[in-house]
Amino acid sequence: MGTLPGRRLVLLLPTVLGVVTLVFAFLHLLPGDPVEIMLGDWAAPADAVALRRDLGLDRPLAAQYVRFVGHAARGDFGQSIAFRAPVARVIADRYPATVELAIAALLLAVGGAVPLGVLAAVWRGRALDRIVRLASLAGVCLPSFWLGPVLMFAFAMRLDWLPVSGRGGLAHLVLPAATLALGMGGILVRLTRASVLAALGEDYVRTARAKGAPRWRAVGVHALRNALVPVVTVLGLQAGALLAGAVITETIFAWPGIGRLVVQAIQARDYPLVQGCVLVIGVTYVAINTAADVLVRAIDPRLAEPA
Amino acid sequence: MTSRLGVVAGVAGLIVIALAGAAAPWLAPAGPYTPDLGARLGAPGGAHLFGQDTLGRDVLARVLYGTRISLGVATAAVGLSLAAGTVLGCVAGYAGGWVDEALTRVIDVLLAFPGLLLAIALAAVRGPSLPNVVLALSVLGWTGYARLARAAVMSLREREFVAAARALGARPVRIVSRHLLPLAGPVLLVQATFGMAGAMVAEGSLSFLGVGAPPPLPSWGAMIDEGRPFLLVAPHLVVFPGLALALAVLALQLLGDGLRDLLDVRLDGAGRMTPS
User: Fold this and answer.
1) How many Cβ atoms from other residues are within 10 Å of residue B20's Cβ?
2) What are the backbone dihedrals phi and psi of residue B232, each rounded to the nearest 5 degrees, phi first?
3) Per-residue pLDDT reduced to its tens digit, B152-205
């Protein structure tokens, strides 16, 4: 068991290297000369030469690649053109805001979805089950770029309960976190309900009941633990959706995180910054999925045995 | 019983949506581009059932014409992804060895990014246009189909009917296309249904962020973005395109859920490309 996280970390290396390679290739996918695109038509030739040297574009491709990988491994993603600061520092300034938003959304989604999913499964076919299923379908179908403005309109503009946008106290966090959480919660409720239903039909739940375990214990301990395996797996996958969803949500609510940064960087054609953001988000995603994998194996020891 | 109901409701919904898009010129004769600067942000009612937008254009017409963009982009993106993914997945699954190893590595790396982020980066690099949206969505959309096709082919490759076909002199292309692929059909169909919903939301997201459909095209995502600053005075600019998209996604979701239960299909992992 103890070596398992270590083994997963080793398996991670090729994927992370692939992510770095893809991000490197990005600059070379640009139609035309990246320096010309970034500086515009009116750039002084001296500036173009300097930027070309900064980006290492005056060297052979293989040398550029080695340099890029080497720098990335040390957390050096070059200079941001728009911010006139190291990309790593610009990202480090924004990263905590995105983490804060993601954790809030995750807590909200899991805290709402898992109990509702369990209750819907236990009271299958009753009124609560129907309401929960309908609400979860709505959560799945309503796109965040619509839900965000609508929530903002209702709770910030009309009712004036919450701030419209920006980052501040807890009140600022509610609307963007709810926007992110509703879509994710819809998926989680459906999944929790389905897997608790499946677990309730298993022999070990009947055995637990037969041995005198109260109903809440049979459901909450025996069934739920097994039902959580697919939920945690999808949670890991959804964490990626959370990071991508943050691009939209942060843009709507002017939340100063990395998602909004990436949009600003794209609009400013600040490609070193785009590369840095994409790389950081990609590596975060890989890390979260690995963590979910390890967690799943801790919940279900059967999966920990090598195949 | 309910899964059959879901399939019927989903198909009916999709037919209505497609008809609305096809009949747009008759349902909204004003057209999606005719400005009426005297009636900017006009409220819903009268000749303009859904109201008028920032340039006085008819919102109903724009929502109806938007159907064509949403459905068209999603169909093209899913079609391309499905074709490319199926071919690559079959080749990898049947050939095995280093071909399989290489493809699996590529898929792992592509899956290491949140799908929407990669699409945003790609679309941004290539400039806002509908073909670029289709390209961006396809470049990362094919992985899901490739994984399913690969898994299906691998699990069936050693079965007796395949050995029999081989003994009769059937070549790999024939074995895969005639004997293996039809069995993978239901899984791919269900995935493609959810993929359509995902692609519609993704197109809307890209257009919302300004890297999708270029103005003045009436993409639902772009319309929501345009309406955002006027939320307090003209909420209809945001409400109607959002409802249209939600209805389309709902129809596909019902269809996908129903088909999955009817065909008894199990998908590994969650469908990709669901950004919200």
Assistant:
1) 18
2) -75, -35
3) 888 888 788 888 888 888 888 888 888 888 888 888 898 899 999 999 999 999
Task: Tell me the chain B residues in contact with residue A141 when contact means C-beta distances shorter than 8 Å.
Answer: 197, 246, 249-250, 253
Instruction: Judge whether B123 is closer than 8 Å to chain A, CB to CB.
Output: no
The CA distance from A116 to A142, in Å, is 19
Task: Please report, to the nearest 10 degrees, the dihedral formed by the alpha carbons of residues A154, A159, A165, A166 taken in order.
Answer: -150
CA distance A25 to chain B (A): 11
State pLDDT tens for residues A255-269: 999 989 988 888 888
The rounded distance, in Å, linking the Cα atoms of A122 and A220 is: 10
Residue B229 DSSP code: G
- My answer on whether A100 and A128 are in the same domain is yes
Interchain pair A141, B115: CB under 8 A: no
Tokens coding B171: 């070549």
* CATH code of the domain containing A154: 1.10.3720.10
Q: Which domain holds residue A63?
A: 19-74
Q: Each residue of B16-36: pLDDT tens digit?
A: 999 998 888 888 878 888 888
The count of domains in chain A is: 2
With an 8 Å Cβ cutoff, are A248 and B276 in contact?
A: yes
